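Researcher: We plan to redesign the surface later, but first we want a full-length starting point. Tokens attached.
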């Protein structure tokens, strides 16, 4: 797939939003967040154009001449998205141990019949957890595109929302599968062959939760509730009445109220693909 300005913006904004949490809380300023974007883009724009996936960007279709003004406009718009994020969520105020996980690969498989098994994998942008009483887990996905403007009929709006959350519901399905495969088993690095270990919770996730609880967790499916799927849009349509400030960043949430029913529904959808 050829790299586009929108795709590049998503990649580098995601990178900055991941790396800002490597900084101490007091250093998670807006300037530092935006500088992480600038640094990462600077690393890629300076490489040999013949070897870079980004060398096709900001070039005239006919002459292939580089257009610096287009790059500046793209960079400014990207930096503005990160400012939108910062107004929505101050990363310095995100409480430990969150984000619990960032850019985490997850895997799940389901048998279609005796001879066919489907394996699904994906990368979750961020997982947050609340361990104040029971372990409540949320899956978060950053979106550099605009939040859908639900201005249509109820049926159309519902279809749009379902399309937006399909990938997140698959993440929920995979994480549930991984918890089932982890129940009653130790989660130590290197304790199984890689081919099987990837279908279980990463040991670092288990370790961080158990450190926060101050005890071991034996049955993850009993003690962990996957409570919410959150799409974090870094922009919105100017005419979106659901957003207080025109064009601002905003959330779109999908609460998981009946885990077993939700799991069964997405399992059926995956089987029918």
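Model: Full-length starting sequence:
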């Amino acid at each position: 797939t050829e790299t586009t300005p929108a795709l590049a913006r998503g990649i580098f904004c995601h990178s900055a939003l991941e790396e800002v949490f490597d900084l101490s809380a007091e250093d998670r300023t807006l300037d530092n967040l935006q500088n992480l974007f600038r640094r990462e883009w600077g690393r890629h724009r300076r490489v040999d154009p013949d070897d870079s996936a980004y060398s096709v960007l900001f070039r005239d279709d006919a002459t292939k001449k580089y257009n610096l003004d287009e790059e500046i406009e793209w960079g400014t718009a990207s930096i503005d998205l990160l400012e939108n994020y910062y107004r929505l969520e101050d990363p310095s105020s995100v409480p430990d141990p969150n984000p619990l996980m960032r850019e985490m690969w997850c895997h799940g498989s389901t048998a279609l019949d005796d001879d066919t098994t489907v394996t699904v994998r994906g990368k979750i942008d961020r997982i947050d957890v609340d361990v104040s009483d029971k372990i409540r887990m949320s899956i978060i996905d950053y979106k550099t595109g605009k939040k859908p403007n639900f201005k249509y009929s109820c049926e159309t709006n519902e279809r749009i929302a379902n399309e937006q959350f399909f990938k997140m519901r698959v993440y929920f399905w995979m994480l549930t599968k991984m918890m089932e495969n982890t129940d009653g088993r130790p989660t130590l690095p290197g304790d199984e062959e890689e081919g099987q270990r990837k279908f279980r919770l990463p040991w670092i996730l288990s370790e961080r939760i158990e450190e926060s609880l101050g005890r071991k967790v034996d049955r993850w499916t009993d003690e962990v509730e996957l409570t919410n799927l959150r799409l974090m849009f870094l922009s919105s349509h100017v005419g979106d009445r659901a957003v207080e400030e025109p064009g601002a960043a905003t959330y779109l949430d999908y609460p998981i109220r009946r885990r077993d029913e939700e799991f069964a529904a997405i399992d059926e959808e995956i089987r029918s693909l």
